[in-house]
Amino acid sequence: MNANQKDRGSYLGQVFTNPASLLLIILLVCGTAYFWSQSRMPALDQKAQMAERNNLSAIAFDIVYPTHADQSVIERIAKTTVNWSYTNWKGMTFGLFFGVLTLCLLQLHPPSNQSKNPLINSFIGMTTGVPLGVCVNCATPIAQGMYLSGLRLEAVLATLLSSPTLNVIVLAISVSLFPTYFVLTKIFGSLIFILVIVPLIVRLTRSGGEAKDASQHLVAEIGNASQGMQRFNQKQRVVIRGSVTDVFQGVALLLFENTIYLFKIAVPMMLLAGFLGAGLVETVPLDELTLLEYSMLSLIFVAIIAVLLPVPIAFDVIAVSALLATGISPGIAMTVLFALGIFSIYPAMIIAKIVSLRLSVGLIGAVIVFAVLLGVLTEQLSEQRNRENNEVLRKELALIKPSQSHLLKPETLAKQICNTSAFEKSDECYVALINSGSLGPPIAALCNKYLLEPDAISSCKEDITTNLITDAALATANVKRCAEITDEARRDSCVIRVLITQSFSQDIVGKCRTLVDPSRIKNCLEHIYLKRIEGLANVSACALDLTSAESSYCLRLLSGYKAAETKNLSQCASLVKNKTSSRFDIANETAGSTAARLCYSLIFSESPEKQTPEFCRTLTSAPATQDCLDELIVRSALAKDSEAQCGEIITPWRKRFCQQGIVERRFQRRMLQQSTLDLAIPQTSTLDINRAASSPDYISAPRYVRYDATPHNADINVQMAQFTAGDTLKVRTDLTEKFVQRPGNSIGLDKLWQFEFTDFFDPFVLGRGIASGDFDNDGWADIAVSTNDGIILYRNYGGLRFGFYKRLNSSERLNALVVALVDLDNDGWLDVFATAYGGRSIVFNNQKGSFDQSNTTTLINREANATLSAGFADWDKDGDLDFLLGNWSFGSEENFRTIFSANQKVTNNNGDYLAETIDELTGDTLSILFSDVNNDHALDILIANDRHVPDLWYLGKPDGFELMSPTRRDVVTSLNTMSYESADFNNDLIMDVFSADMSFDDDGVSAYCHLLDETDAKSCAEKLLGRRAILDLDISWCGNQSEISERASCLEAMTVRLAATEKNPKLCHNLADQAAKDLCQRLAKRYASDPPIIYDQYPLQEMSNKLLLGRSNGGFKDATIEAGVQSSYWSWSAKAADLDNDGYQDIYIGNGYEFGNPVQLFSNVFFHNEQGKRFKRAEQKFNLDFMPNTSSFTYADFDRDGDIDIITSSVMSQLFLLENQVSKNRSIQFNLLDQHGNKNAVGAKIIIYYGNNLQQMREIKLSGGYQSFDETVVTFGLADHATIDRVNVHWPSGDISTLKDLSANARYLITRTRTP
Q1: 118: alpha, beta or left? (left if phi > 0; alpha if psi -120 to 50)
Q2: pLDDT of 586 strictly over 50
Q3: Residue 1247: phi, psi to the nearest 5?
């Protein structure tokens, strides 16, 4: 053992055998552990998770006192100083604490035998500083104590500089935000500066040894030299030799004197540094740096500014990330990143005071020079990378684009398919494709283009003309339009279809008898019978002016329908036998309502084990057996794409239907498969297409809900339908008391889209919309989903399962965001409203249950990038729904600038839409709520803005809306408001308001892909690798993709990233997809900073969820903490519903952002309402702890069993049904139909009274949440109550209807037939 090792062992022995030293070490360890676990780690973890979304205020994270341009310079500087002090006080306190303890410890045991090697000393100091993890300002008192204790200056400075620059968490944030080369440049630059430049500066600034003798400096500060040294020696003797009391007293005295000493220097200078930094940043705001072009003068300028600013930990990383998003040059960004975090005016002042002014100035100069050099290096590296990437992208895109020339045109593909089809004549195949719309909107020109035989061409044209006239007649309910059809058979078919829609009028039989052909009269009557039977399901369905034979036949059909409901197969078979003399066209849209068809649909759908030929042969009649076998063959043939199986079908119309289905699906599949060769069109996998092809939309008719008429008031019509008895989506014999999480593909919600690489950009990575509603008016809630390839509609087949229904798109594919099912033309059929990237809003009009994509209305707002929120209400009270569009600009891609975020109001004048931009504060609007929140019987508007932009509350007035007064202090909103919801949570019949914000914790999941199912997880892992490659602009990664569609998508995203980095819009011309091109061109431009916000004019904000309980005077009480709902992680859509039917509305919150590491992932949050008194987290108890990132979801009672189910839409995941099997509690539902206002009575309130003075209220809304719209059916949980005493319906017009004594466990359809 050498002398140095012996001395080191002796020194450590003295330290650990000294009671005073041990006490100081214990204090140091405990204090450091507490600071790191309770303050530093949570704070850094939150900053890491928020990343670019951190709010920056001048030189601070926290905003105690907002500043704005209308304030004087002195006021802004003073408030910025306070904000800075508040942000730094914890770190500064720890720095002072650590510095005092270090000073005390090293005073007791002055360091001996320190290395004289500057490099080694710097390395030792760096290993000390890295774990500290405090900013350079907070590390200054620590370095001060170390220096005054006699440690070498190189070690002291290395500790000071390494703490803010090389901290592990700060580096993790850097890796998540910056390209790899950028991070490595910063790390290597920091290491060289600390290990090489710092020792060099110390050596060059020395003048005759150490600048000042540290111990003499300390003694001089405590008192005169002799007295100070004497007192110091006395303390040392007392501590070593005294009793336990003496040890504590001696340590306390030592701590006190050193604290006073460091405090006298540190705190005044800290405040002065904050003040000077505030003055500097108010003179040259960081946002102004975005206006600088790269030059040597720019680098020097920003380096001087940055090195002086005293910013908190991680501020440099967040600020530079924001600057890069605005297009600042990488060289300037690196200069700011290095100089901003490593040093500041505060340590410079301390060093000048206790060491030397020369060293302080030397360090400032060295940081400036080195930051400039790093900036030059980074700019050169960036330019070289960009040149190489431009060339690679050009070549790669050139390789892909020629493949587009090999795409088959629709007419060529149709010819290939029809020439090989099983149709006897190819013209029959072409007619099937024309009528299905596969070759475009059916027009007469298509008949001439594709057909050969004159008779076929003539018949084709007549079919198209007939369909157009029939559609017009149906749309206007005007049978006279059918007279325009010249062919008698086609004209009568048109008449029958129109009359079917009027089946419940008393003179309907007479209208059928106006037909000339007796067989068509019979056909008309048969359809009328069946339509009435479906709606009434009792003998009143046949209470018409019929002959005895007609009445008898109607009653037989009724018996068959009853048999279908009870699954009485013998009666069902008898019905099929009796039907052989009838003429049913099963391919016609109304044929699905026949009782026999419905009977088999129930058998096949509800009993999969019976879907076999053996079961069919057990039926008691030959016609029934043949129908059953043919049905199974149709299903199998379409699923397997087998025309040979179609040939086995006996019934001619079924055989034709099967063949038509085969060619239609072949054509669609081939078009989608070849589209994967085109960069402009996304890939849809063959598996997904086959799933779509096996959907039950052609298998069986939907099961229509039957309502029974009930006694009602003169002004309203009331019908009732009992809840189902567990024979629908629920596969169970008893309740699980939990929600059951069912993958969408297990119930027909197949994933028919793919996550693309451009979906990693905002806003697509945030998630897309989902909506529920009954778009086919069969009584069952259907689903609409936004995708990057249009809107996908899923039909609910009687609560048994879902099936793909239609994909709605446009000539330019819709990169869709918001979707809502809303009756905008007020015809009683839910239309599809959607928004798409590029400022487009589209209305797909519902034509009696079908959607013709040519019948759409498109609104284009050139001043908006995207609409991420919408709300619908009849604000002008003209009987149709108007809507408000919440717009969004860039998100993190452009540092949350809001230049394109001006919201629009769209007034609906009977289908003519007048769009107006609203003159208001501009923010990224994530949620819009129309609700009477202050209970004055007038709709109010709540607009949720992201980040620091205040929310806007407009209160309804007789003549419009008025912005809520900023002087009100009873409304404090969330800071990053993601979602608004209103509900009466405590059943006092006064509306309450809930808003969702972001919050963070460190005990979540740090990886994402394994949370998905196996297929999605594999795709997710590959996509995340590609995301990193895109951030690094590693274009070679794209070339490794085997699928050309994946390769094209990757190159597309690379192009967008490179154009945004270079701010070069010309690169965007290489993109074929319009949404990607729009995104690219927007991000490739430079934009000015947002105007300052005058916060005094808007409600106060806090970073927290907010629960505001309504008061009778229209005010609010903030019950957030009291109710226990302040935190729900990275929240998105938050919606109220009574999910366990206990009579109190709960809150479910979709959760999740990013994909882990550093962002922590948490499950969705469920706040269970505890009898209106408070809420309790209960997602695990109810099995609602769904993990994939869920920004949107929809509520609906999909199986009509009386409780509310949930369908989630998650990032990179298939849909999931969270099926409610929680409770045996009773409930009651209401569906309103208003014939004298907007049809779905949006804006109405329903109040129920029951039990012993119990009451509840619901409001019908099509707004609130985040990209989430629910069906307008209202559900009240009743616990164990079997009846309700009274229901008051407050219609949107202000009129009130009252019902009494209603039974539970039923849905009531309430129709207002006339104005009271």
Answers
A1: alpha
A2: no
A3: -120, 130
Amino acid sitting at position 1141: N
Q: Crossing angle, helix 19-35 and helix 225-241, to 10 degrees?
A: 90
Q: Which of 759, 841, 749 is nearest to 1208 (CA)?
A: 749
Please name which of 85, 42, 55, 286 lies closest in space to residue 1101, comparing C-alpha atoms: 55
Instruction: Report which residue type is found at 938.
Output: A
Sheet holding 940-945, edge to edge: 925-931, 940-945, 952-957, 960-963
C-alpha distances (whole Å) from 985 to each of 780, 1117, 1135, 1147 are 28, 13, 12, 9
Q: Which pair of tokens denotes residue 969?
A: 């202090």
Cα–Cα distance between 740 and 1217 in angstroms, integer? 8
Q: Where are the alpha helices (DSSP H) in 1032-1073?
A: 1036-1039, 1044-1062
What CA–CA distance (Å, rounded) separates 819 from 897? 25
The closest alpha carbon to 182, from 388, 296, 82, 320, belongs to 320
Q: Which residue has the higher pLDDT, 383 or 986?
A: 986
Angle at alpha carbon of residue 891, lines to 890 and 895, rounded to 5°:
90
Q: Which amino acid is at 790?
A: G
* Rounded Cα gap, residues 1175 and 1190, in angstroms: 21
Residue 980 binned pLDDT confidence (cut-offs 50, 70, 90): very high
Q: For the purposes of burial, counting CB atoms within 10 Å of the CB of 800, is it exposed (0-12), middle (13-18) or buried (19 or more)? A: buried
Structure tokens given for 99: 């510095």
Surface-to-core class of residue 245, CB atoms within 10 Å of its CB (0-12 exposed, 13-18 middle, 19+ buried): exposed
Interatomic CA distance for residues 36 and 44, integer angstroms = 10
Measured N-to-C along each axis, helices 345-354 and 357-400 cross at an angle, to the nearest 10 degrees, of 150
Residue 254's identity, in one-letter code, is L
Of 479-483, 1037-1041, 1176-1180, least confident by mean pLDDT is 1037-1041
Nearby residues of 117 by Cβ (< 8 Å), 6 or more positions away: none
Confidence (pTM): 0.74
* Residue 100 in tokens: 């005092």
Q: Could you tell me which of 702, 589, 697, 596 has the C-alpha nearest to residue 638? A: 697
* Contact status, residue 421 vs residue 429, Cβ threshold 8 Å: yes
Q: Which has the closest alpha carbon to 678: 1013, 406, 903, 288? A: 406
Sign (positive or negative) of CA dihedral 90, 96, 100, 102: positive
Peptide bond between residue 743 and the one before it cis (omega within 30 degrees of 0): no
856 pLDDT above the threshold of 80: yes
Q: Round the CA-based radius of gyration of the chain to a whole number and report it.
A: 37
Which pair of tokens denotes residue 959? 């003549």
